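cron nightly-structures :: item 1 of 1
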Amino acid sequence: TQQDLDGDLVNYIHDGTETLTDQMEFQLSDGINSSDRFKYDIQLIPVNDAPTLRVEIDAQGMPLKMPIQEAGTYVLNPAVLIGFDAETTPAALIYHITSAVSAGSFTVEGVEATSFTGTQLATGFVQFEHDGSENIPDSLQIKLVDGSASDAESG
């Protein structure tokens, strides 16, 4: 009603998707006659959302483990380590290994590293190289950042 509009009781609530425009349609009526429909365009101001990070799970609902042999190499890939940010290209997403790595090290393009980009992950340049010991890597903490929003962390 006009009273609702005058009293600021009509609100537009965005659904959180990455759309930049929306539209509302109005029609006025006095209870007997109605006006033509009027479309009102809405311009949305984008917000930089935090990236999301998850690890693929197995049939039992547990995070997948790196299948690696003693002194072997495992190539990380985006099907297992899944990072996403709608506003950021894979090249700008940075994965940081935030926990101590046991029984080996991570390399990116052959150089030991503690961080890598989404592009490096997608192209197969990120590897875990087991050190040949009898120790088995147990867990890993990785933080995903896009440079400006809150970060995502996986364990």
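cron nightly-structures :: done
The first helix runs from residue 2 to 6.
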